[in-house]
Amino acid sequence: MIRSSSFISLCLGTGLLLAATSAWADDPKFTHTSEDEAKELKKAEKPEWKAGALAGLILATGNSRSTTLSAGAKASRKANKNKFQVEASGAYARSSIYLANDADADGDIGPNEYQRLIQTTARALNGKARYDRFLSDADALYVSAQGATDKPAGKQFIGGGQVGYSRTAYESARHNLVAEGGYDYSYENPVVGKGFSNHSLRAFAGYEGKLSADSGLAASLEGLFNVNKLKTPTGPADRFEDARLTSKISLTTTIYKDVNFRFGFEARYDNVPSALPSFPKTPFEAGFVPEAQKLDTKTEATIIVNFL
User: Fold this and answer.
1) What is the pLDDT of residues 98-123, one digit of tens each?
2) 8 by DSSP, 3-state: which?
């Protein structure tokens, strides 16, 4: 009887031990990654690509002759805590009009004093590359390099770079607000005069919002403020005198799948503009250096095709 009870107790104990071991092994919290966690890990490892391009052309012939061309492209790649993006844009406009010039000053316009004047009124190119290293979902460090040219505005070439800190101040399903601060270096080679370097503080604020499932609004404001004294072709500039502001606003709506329509407005303000080039190429009088306009604006309606 004693032996039988011991045997029964041994069997019961062994059964309980095996059941406990089986329950432990089947617990997914300790031995397996859940399905949702696996999806999140796979999503985090998969790079996110975006790319799009836009272009526009207006050609007029006959009495009024003009050619206007605009184009742009943008691409980005984000993987884990790294994001790299490049963008480029350009605008070109050339016009031809009849011009009467009383060259012999006799009070009348002769056959040789009435001719077409051909002039390039816009020739601007911009390119930029930027890298962001995310410290968290809302914080990042960035570094960028850019180059541009705009001869009608008196700028043969502008090149430089930026470095700073970016913060997502607010983010939701419909709204995103970003603020940035940092340092900007640029070298400007004007059409008239000698080139100079500009060291500036940079401040930026950008907003993106969804108006509906198919429409979105974007707006931004960037300010650059020089911290060094400048010697420009139009005269000296003190610290913080060469303030440069760039404001952009755009409304985008989906037309069909990856084809969007965008209406945008851009304003660029330069408190110390470059010297204007002469046209025709006749030298100005000594001491006379005309300045370009401080404010340039651009309004455009474009079709955007997203490739990725």
Assistant:
1) 777 777 777 788 777 777 778 888 88
2) helix
| Domain count within the chain | 2
Neighbours of 120 (CB within 10 A): 13
- In this structure, what are the phi and psi dihedrals at residue 142, rounded to the nearest 5 degrees? -135, 155
CA angle 174, 166, 141 (to 5 degrees): 135
Residue 223 pairs in a beta bridge with: 203, 245
Q: Evaluate if pTM is beyond 0.70.
A: yes
Helices vs. strands in the chain: H and E counts, helices first:
3, 14
Whether residue 173 contacts residue 161, with contact meaning beta carbons closer than 8 Å, is answered with no
Q: Are residues 45 and 127 in the same domain?
A: yes
pLDDT digits (tens, 9 = 90+) for 277-308: 766 566 777 777 788 899 999 898 888 998 87
| 201 neighbors 184 (Cβ within 8 angstroms) | yes
- Here the tokens at position 271 are 């408190």
Residue 291: give its domain's CATH number.
2.40.160.40
Reduced DSSP (H G I as helix, E B as strand, rest coil) percent helix, strand, coil of the chain, to 5: 15, 60, 25
Query: 151-178 in b/e burial notation, b at 16+ Cβ within 10 A?
Result: bbbbbbbbebbbebebeeeeeeeeebeb
In which domain, by residue range, is 27 found? Answer: 1-32
Say how many Å lie between the first and final Cα of the chain, rounded.
80
Structure tokens at 213: 């499932």
